[in-house]
């Protein structure tokens, strides 16, 4: 990306990006989610592979957060304020593994090897 685009999207440098990040953070805190929880494993196969490579405890915690968020949403409620205060919506657990999976996929494509997985529609 160009340096202008990077500075435009950086919340430390752009007021609008900072406002957007704060709004997203508030919405995620209300339901106890992290930003990485919003990635859909059925939308992109790299995400599914990255989730398969994560430790079971991390995936179980993700599933619990998603279940709690769906339950709160169906009840039209939010987490209590004291629990919202301790949430960390932008603490990443998936980004490093996702970057590794994407690098491996690109390397396999460059070498002409067979893909690690085939895209199938659920």
Automatic annotation (TrEMBL):
One example of a Gene Ontology biological process annotation: mitochondrial electron transport, ubiquinol to cytochrome c
SUPFAM superfamilies according to UniProt: 14 kDa protein of cytochrome bc1 complex (Ubiquinol-cytochrome c reductase)
Membrane topology: Peripheral membrane protein
Compartmental location: Mitochondrion inner membrane
Gene Ontology cellular component annotations, sorted alphabetically: mitochondrial inner membrane; respiratory chain complex III
Protein name: Cytochrome b-c1 complex subunit 7
Alphabetic keyword roster: Electron transport, Membrane, Mitochondrion, Mitochondrion inner membrane, Respiratory chain, Transport
Record function comment: Component of the ubiquinol-cytochrome c oxidoreductase, a multisubunit transmembrane complex that is part of the mitochondrial electron transport chain which drives oxidative phosphorylation.
Taxonomic superkingdom: Eukaryota
Cross-referenced InterPro entries: QCR7, QCR7_sf
Family classification: Belongs to the UQCRB/QCR7 family.
Main subcellular location: mitochondrion
Subunit-level organization: Component of the ubiquinol-cytochrome c oxidoreductase (cytochrome b-c1 complex, complex III, CIII), a multisubunit enzyme composed of 10 subunits. The complex is composed of 3 respiratory subunits cytochrome b (MT-CYB), cytochrome c1 (CYC1-1 or CYC1-2) and Rieske protein (UCR1-1 or UCR1-2), 2 core protein subunits MPPalpha1 (or MPPalpha2) and MPPB, and 5 low-molecular weight protein subunits QCR7-1 (or QCR7-2), UCRQ-1 (or UCRQ-2), QCR9, UCRY and probably QCR6-1 (or QCR6-2).
